[in-house]
Amino acid sequence: MRLSILIKTYNEAEKIETCLRSVLEAIRGIEGGVEIIVADSLSTDATIEIVKNYPAKLVQLRDASDRGCGTGVQLGFQHAAGRFVYLLDGDMELQRSFLLQALEMIESNDEIGGISGIALDKRINNWFDRHRLKTKSILEPRDMEWLGGGGLYRRAAIEQAGGYAGNRNLKAYEEAELGLRLRSRGWRLMRIPVLAILHTGHVDSTYSLVARHFRSGRLDSGGVLLKIAITEPWRGRVARLFIHPLCTLLYWFCWLVCLVFVNDWRVFSALAVLGLSIYIASAVKKRSLTDAFISLLLWHVTALGILRGLMIQKWQPPASEIPSRVLNEGA
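Given the sequence above, the corresponding structure tokens read:
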């Protein structure tokens, strides 16, 4: 089997049909064998019924407690047979021109472990979507630390880097963890200036999205990733990834120590001035009071998530088989 397209889903009834149609168009005429695998995390809407109308293998979790982005990726990977795998979300539309170019590049260069392209949001409803729009433009091919928004990966590279495409203990940052593992073993990850996917985008506002991610435990993944990285050569890079929330935790610790041991209003005033100064500096840098406020809010919420993640005791071996069932064999 030459290629496996892995699509993770959870309640994607409004988007999965568009996704599957884009995949069928993208793989048209590709020789060597192509399979489509939909990995579902126990959707409660009509996602399953819609997928069954398409020539895709449909696999589903057995246990809802296993839900998570890392689990969704790995569930598809453990059922895949392709020499190359494309990781896709159910709210994305794959672009044929990118897939053909990426396949040609990765097959002609044995050093490349993964390739991604440009992801374009179809709607911009919150701060996160606007931030991606500001930072994702690229003008030339370049090496990346990890790929965001899916991508085409070499199966042999994933097998060498632990044997799992998504760490099932992560509800977020699974692409960063995969990229860091691949890079530490010498594989190149590339992004090319070609439109790869159209992304439906979020319907949530900025604050409702933050609240949903906190309730679901996605923000706890910062602490989980830090625990994973402790024994890895890329632990320093993960620490830098969370430098602002980690500094926020240090700021909280200073407040706690002063409240317990110092009890001096001058020290409290100095800490308050420090916090205000950081906000003002951020506002000047971003040229926006709102963007600065959202950034500081995210630092604090992510810091709290890191604390929760560090305290999580449940741990599954990342490469262990995820309990699942096959609902449709596909074609």
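The CA atoms of residues 277 and 283 lie 10 Å apart. Try to locate this feature in the token string yourself.
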